Amino acid sequence: MQILGAWRLTARVFFPFAAGYYLSYLFRTINALIAGRLSSDTGLGTADLGLLTSVYFLVLAAVQIPVGILLDRFGPRRVQSALLVLAAVGAGLFAVSTGFLSFLIARAMIGLGVAAALTAGLKSIVLWFPRERSALLNGYMVMLGSLGAVTATAPAEHLLTWMGWRQLFEILAAATAATAMLIYVVVPERAIVPSTPSMSANLSAVFGDKRFWRIAPLSASCVGSAWSLQGLWASPWLMDVEGLDRAGLVGQLFMMSIILSGGAWLFGTIVHYIKRRSLGAETILAMVAILFITAELALILRVPLPSILPWSVVAIVGTATVVSFAVIADYNPPELAGRANGALNVLHFGWAFLAQYATGLILEQWPANDGHRSVQAYQVAFGLNVALQIATLVWFAVPWCRSIASWMRSILVFKQADVTYAVGSVGLYEDSVILMPTDDDAEW
């Protein structure tokens, strides 16, 4: 009966919210597939395309704190279902838009509508499932949601062979509205205990935590950049720099999406097991950041490797939110889960917006040759982002460096004290020898 109850809870709570996050990921990455068609049909330039795609992240970043407060106040069921209705309207507007402004408004509405997709799922896990399984379930949530990125590659390409991208967005609008209804009808209501305005249960407790500001810049610069690259700029890079045709491009995007989904499961499983052994997830985040920077440098420096290898690392890093949220969960009580995750997501989405839009602006500084940008343009755009990631990694590592320096100083002090003691002992021994009577008849 207990197992049956767990499966019923999973079906009624976990899967509906995973469906909402699935749609969020699909909307996030679909522009990478339709970028060429969208530009040719509407005449959008590189910078316009970058702004149009990245405004999704800008809106997400702007509303994360209010959404987190709403989740803590009214619960994920009502907040998520209401917002997804707005996303459905935005998708419908995107399908019929003709000018840049209407596209921009529609994309912003989609971003606002899916703003709670991840945090609502994470909040539902906190409310309904055991705390010790939260990291594992977070990984499953991101894994299932990232299947939306998989759908936005080869499956969507097959649909586009017999329908236009406008018809595709009409289908997405209908699916989003259906998901909103599913969550509202199927998910049971859970009593929410309002947080008191004390310091221990206030948003200022999140932003006032020095540990938050140590981990957040590193997480944002890596996760946000990975979202920016896979959500849009991986496609132009693969065509302009790697010289892939349409079939090769779709195939590589599909592989990256599969790896993205597997990465979420991997991170969730790793964090689950290390937390059971009372180990911190900060070390995993640092290792992910180093691996990500290395992969980006391999792309920028044109290291002779199959491009799928560094791009697979980029895809995996997009799911490192599982690690970051596990760290944040250790810093805050359950009643602050929505606010804390929302605060971190502000930086995730904000960085993704800046990286995605700034990359388009930088690329447009180089003239296009037959519709393709030069390798140097991409190297400069990507290189600036890597430099910022290195800076956040150094900032993150400052406490570790201080700990290592303190440990080395303690060893040196210990050794000096040991040497001083030894020298003093020798001096006392020598004094005792000098003070001994020198009698030739003494017997030894």
What is the compact description of this entry?
The chain has helices spanning 2-42, 46-74, 76-96, 100-113, 117-128, 134-145, 147-151, 154-160, 165-186, 203-207, 210-240, 246-276, 282-300, 308-317, 321-331, 337-363, 375-435. Helix content is 81%, strand content 0%.
Please describe the topology of this protein.
Elements: H1 2-42, H2 46-74, H3 76-96, H4 100-113, H5 117-128, H6 134-145, H7 147-151, H8 154-160, H9 165-186, H10 203-207, H11 210-240, H12 246-276, H13 282-300, H14 308-317, H15 321-331, H16 337-363, H17 375-435
Helix pairs in contact: 1-2, 1-5, 1-6, 1-9, 1-11, 2-3, 2-4, 2-16, 3-4, 3-5, 3-9, 5-6, 5-16, 6-12, 6-15, 11-12, 11-13, 11-14, 11-15, 11-16, 11-17, 12-14, 13-14, 13-17, 15-16, 16-17
Explain what this protein looks like in three dimensions.
The radius of gyration is 27 Å and the shape is globular. The chain has helices spanning 2-42, 46-74, 76-96, 100-113, 117-128, 134-145, 147-151, 154-160, 165-186, 203-207, 210-240, 246-276, 282-300, 308-317, 321-331, 337-363, 375-435. The termini are far apart. The longest helix is centred in the C-terminal third of the chain and has 61 residues, at 375-435. It is mainly α and 444 residues long. The model is unreliable at 195-200 and 421-444 (pLDDT under 50).
